[in-house]
User: Fold Acetyl-coenzyme A synthetase from Arthrobacter oryzae.
Amino acid sequence: MSQQTPGSTAMQAPQGDAFENLSQENRRFAPSAEFAANAVVTAGEYAEADADRPAFWAKQARELLSWSKDFTQTLDWSNPPFAKWFVGGEINAAYNALDRHVEAGHGDRVAIYFEGEPGDTRTYTYAQLTEEVKKAANAFESLGVTKGDRVAVYLPMIPEAVITLLACARIGAIHSVVFGGFSAEALRSRIDDAEAKLVVTADGTYRRGKPSALKPAVDDALAHDGHTVQNVVVVKRNGQDVDWHEGRDHWWADTVGAASAEHTAVGHDAEHPLFILYTSGTTGKPKGILHTTGGYLTQGAYTHKAVFDLHPETDVYWCTADVGWITGHSYVAYAPLINGATQVMYEGTPDSPHQGRWWEIVEKYKVSILYTAPTAIRTFMKWGKEIPAKSDLSSIRVLGSVGEPINPEAWMWYREVIGGNGGRKQTPAPIVDTWWQTETGAQMIAPLPGVTATKPGSAQVPLPGIAVDVVDELGETVPNGHGGFLVIREPWPAMLRGIWGDPERFKETYWSRFESMYFAGDGAKKDEDGDIWLLGRVDDVMNISGHRLSTAEIESALVSHPAVAEAAVVGAADETTGQAVVAFVILRGDAVDTGDDIVQELRNHVSKEIGPIAKPKTILVVPELPKTRSGKIMRRLLKDVAEGREVGDATTLADNTVMAQIARSLKK
Ligand code: WTA
Assistant:
């Protein structure tokens, strides 16, 4: 386990050379006069928030949300790191996302344009979506779900996912979404940790033109005694055969479909838990990140409006994230609907049935705001700009990026090919690179598209009301032109309220590294202008295609295979996916090295234990692993090997012949 002490191998200071290249970046793209003139927020927000941070957030909370009972205190920080925002206030998230827009006369506005992978489509107006959520709320209540109960959600990107989340929020049940790409085993551990009472799933979904299954994983996850699940609601999506557990399983159409469309939303306490979302940390066990209601909704709504310059009457917004990740929670299920926006939801992969699918969707729905991840952008770069050029992308006016650092080349390509409609547009759309985490709940660092002159590759500035800093090993602010660790100095409304069932781990993970500061786990640099550049994780967390995975989690999956004695995993730089999983394994004495066969078997084993996203790209069978005298694996040296570099300083190894042994075994 990583004790995060200065200089430990678990947390290396960010490397300088990455920044040397970045610091030469001097291109700037100021907002056009027209964009700035019509922008929903102005530069004045920074000064206003600086003058009185809580007052700024109190104003946003009252302007952007409808409270059934006003709050009496904006922030209670008397017991750090346990914050309470909007104390005494009562609010219903679903009412804010739905009913109030209908009451305000916007019932006919489209809330969701759904595009299924096979090409089927559905449109929900705000009035229709409100009705569906009311029915689902009634159905879940009829299955015995009450306020505070946990509901596990294992669904593809279909409207029922949003409906389920909002129905839970409406009745005060706490949802825990598990990404559909996670395995039965990963699902089981999350259901058990949260002690879920209900599971909502689907028979399956479509992946690259083929039906794929989800329900069997739920059946497997519940195939042990002593679990807490009483009912499973199943959406029929692709009509494949499913095993059926009479009494426990219910078709969505029979329960939700038959439920009453009358349901009155009541306010819940501002600090009532809204959801748990599991994410990878530095240990093998995923952490259940807990978010509550009032602060989460406030910061989500504010950032969605300000960072994307949202004009809800005219914009069509599309965030490509899956609802299984935090981006799909904050910027698909909650903020866009709270803000009354019209959004696109797409079920499938970008290359189905062909590599131009996304751009056809943009043209078809006239998407004006697109929010996606650098991995996707780099993939499109590889496929070539002729593909997006076949579609009319002139509707796009704001582009967002999230999940991993975006390299300047990808940034420029995104701007010119997508934001510039392949060169056909005189003024390309501004790009907002947004830094945040599952833990922060909402965006924290990003330019404002009508205010900031953007810089390729940099997330640049903390948002109004957010106190981000870059500090050295001792927690001192670094001067411009220097690198260090990204921290957050003041509490923020959407901050996590803890780790489900483990308050000590919450303190230790985020608040113990630096006194009175939240430590994000990221390395960062400030350039000469004071703009922030994110340099990737400094702990044992990897970022594969914008998805968080922990080295320890994959290592423990590998050693659970009978042929493996020891394993070490590193994230190696990868041109498309940002990082790729590279595993070094020592086989047990009695295991036979069958070359490719054992490698394939181990890759499948990881897929079964965690999910296909965790499958190592490369597995290297080695005779030894580099360890310090205290037995800690020196991943830094393995990373050098995985990235094809000369191996760095190995003087602290217990056995200094190990690296040579590894090199010899890899040459073979
Ligand atoms: C990384 C995703 C650079 C970072 C919203 C963070 C980024 C982790 C950016 C959180 C960005 C996210 N630039 N790095 N714009 N956005 N990251 O919890 O390392 O899935 O700590 O939340 O992704 O990943 P998570």
User: Anything to note?
Assistant: The chain has 21 helices and 30 strands. Residues 539-666 form a domain with the GMP Synthetase; Chain A, domain 3 fold (CATH 3.30.300.30). The radius of gyration is 24 Å.
